[in-house]
Structures are given as C-alpha cells and as structure tokens.
Amino acid sequence: MSDPKPTLAHGGLPACLDATLMAELKQTADALCTPGKGFLASDESAGPWLRAGHAEAKKVPDNKDNRGAYRSTCFKAPGLSEHISGCILHTETLYQEDAEGNKMVDLLNKQGIIAGIKLDKGYDKKKGLAGTSIGPLGHQETFCRGIDDLQQRAADAYTQGARFAKWRNVLQIDPVKGLPSDLAIAEATTNLARYAAICQSEGLVPIVEPEIVPNGSHDIFACAAATERVLAAQFKALADANVYLEGCLLKPNMVKNGLTGPRASPEEIATLTVQALKRTVPPALPGIFFLSGEMPLDVDNEEDATINLSTMNAMFKNLPWHLSFSYGKAMQKTAIVTWATGYLAGTPAAENAAATQKALVARGAANGSANKGEYKPGSCASVGTEGNIQQAAGPY
C-alpha cells in the first residue's frame, strides 16, 4: 500500500497524513489561535487547589466529587468563551459528568470552547534519565512516559470529544553542571516529536511543551541560552518526525531568571523571550501559548504572568505567531481561593459558584487583553501573595 499523492498543503512533507485530516488539524489550530483568547489549563491530576500554592485552599478534601464540582463551576462561567478558546483537561475530567449528569466536554462545547486532553503520564522522580546529573529539582534529568499506548489513548480522546492534546517534558538549568544536557534535550524533544506525530494521525492538534523549569539561582541569560538550545532541537525533531506545523502548537516557558536568581524586568523577559522565538520557531506554526511557570512566594503569580504576556505583545507587533497564554494557576488562583474558602465556610453553592466564576472570567479578560498588549497592571483583582506557600515541583 502506497502513501497518497501529496497536495499543496503537504509541500515538502511526505503524504503520510490525508489532506482532509490536515485541513481539520489546521482549522482546529487556527480556531485555538483566535485573537484575544488563550487556554485554561485544567489538567491537574489532583485537586486544582493543591497546585494553587495557597494555605487555605489546601484544606479542601481532594476527591473526584470536589474536583468535578470546582471544574464544572469553571466550565459554566458565563462569558468565559470570550477569552478562552481551548481548555486542557485531565483524563478523569474528559470522561467525567457534573452533578446534573452533563458531560464536562459538553459544558465546554456549549460555551464554544474546544476541549483538549493531557496525554503524558508524567515522569519518575526516583528513576530519571540514566547517565544524567541531579538538577535543582533534586533529581536526575527526565522524560515523560506514555508513548507506548499513546496511539489508542489519542484515538479514544478524539472519540470522547477532544480535538487537541498536550504533552509536557521537564528540563532543568544548572550552568555549573551543564544542564540541560545534550542527552536530556535530545530525549525530551524526540519524545515530544513522536507524541506530536501520533496525535496528528488521530486528529488531535498537539501542543508541544518542552518546559525549562525556573528552579535555581541562574540569571535570565542562562535561561535564554537554554531556551534557544531546546527550541532549536525541538523544531529539528518535529521536522524529522514529519509533523505538520500548521496543525501544531507550542507551549514554552518564558525566558526568565531562576527563582532565586537576580530578577529581570518584564521588558527584559519580553525581549529575550521573543528573541529566542524569532531565532528558533518557524512562522508556519500558528500559535505559541506560554506557561506561567513557578514564581517566588513574594510574587503575584496571576498578575505577573499577565503583565509579562502583555509586555511582549505591546513591545513586539506583527509577529508571525499568535502569542498567548496557557495558564493553570495563573488563570485560576483567585478563582480557586474564592471557591475553596467559600466551600470551607459553608457558603451556599450558588453564591460561591457566582463569585468563583466572576474571578475566573475577570482573569480571563485580563489575559485576553494581554494577548493584544493592552493589559493595564493592577486592573484585575487577585488574591495576591497573601497565603502563598511553597508547592511541590515536578509532575502534576
């Protein structure tokens, strides 16, 4: 059996993907890149309140019913789709129903929000990548598991209503030890490229996420060097895997200083981040959706992430990509704390839901403005840094 004949959409790619499937992938990717919109990352394996880094929120019992109650509250928020084009789900949520028997995917579709699925299975902290050094996370360099059964899981997710996917690999910076190592970069980027090709074959637009974590005392220039190395290797790996870039998305870290390193300004972050992208990311890729990343305890995660994104889009106009957000805690922290404290205080469910939804949509609007470079710092209320606690790093 021979491959179908190439079309104009294939260009130099082998005709492995059917032209109709390529058109569907591009249509989904373009819809996800709607101006003024980004992603709600709702793919935490545990209760989102455990990833919020807030003392009070951690008191809520972590069980399936509570996770479903919080997430369905978010997905029903009036006006959320004005700022959110896609929502990344955990497997549990993709197959879950709310208390009224509505499928979570249907709640999103009703809003006009495209459902996505987290497909990596995380990594093993105890057994990292053999032959690599221990980095600032306290373990060896790593790669994520899940490739062996990915084809079927991707097909099942598509059947359930997902139209895009996400896979995250973690890399660490330690300039003294030479991290990230060439071995870790090769393993992470090849792993992500194989995931991307498999997802596209099953109709899912892949979000490729080679995350360089900020743990460490390095300066912003060490992060810039690491980011350029990783992204250059990533797009070489995607090309080697014959990934259709017009139906693919990137979720990178911003170029920032280490958590305990000398602090960079939003303008410095914007300049070095966009510079790294210009040097490494082909213009055929339609969209780049930043993760917010961990931040020091005295920094307002939500506000800082919004300001950084807005500064990029204000300083750099007419970029070839949709430069937007794919935030978890930086989209939800105020909403999570509002919901959790209301839950713990016994606030009536309807009243608590309304307050939670208001907070979520407000931050969505702020990030939507940031996508246009128009956010005014301090104009969106947040819980700030009060109650911040250190959270565990690593897989989630």
Characterise the protein shown here:
- There is one protein chain.
- The protein has 396 residues and is an alpha/beta fold.
- It has eleven helices and eight strands.
- It has an eight-stranded parallel barrel with strand order 1-2-3-4-5-6-7-8, surrounded by eight helices.
- Helix content is 40%, strand content 11%.
How would you characterize the largest beta sheet?
Answer: 8 strands, parallel, barrel
What's the Cα radius of gyration?
A: 20 Å
Strand order in the sheet with the most strands: 1-2-3-4-5-6-7-8
Kindly state the percentage of residues in helix: 40-55%
Pick out the low-confidence regions.
none
User: Structural class, from secondary structure content?
Assistant: alpha/beta
Give helix and strand order, one letter per element, not per position: HEHEHHEHEHEHEHEHEHH
Strand fraction equals 5-15%
- The averaged pLDDT comes out at 94
Distance between the termini: 42 Å
User: Which shape, going by the Cα principal axes?
Assistant: globular
Number of strands: 8
Instruction: Specify the number of helices.
Output: 11
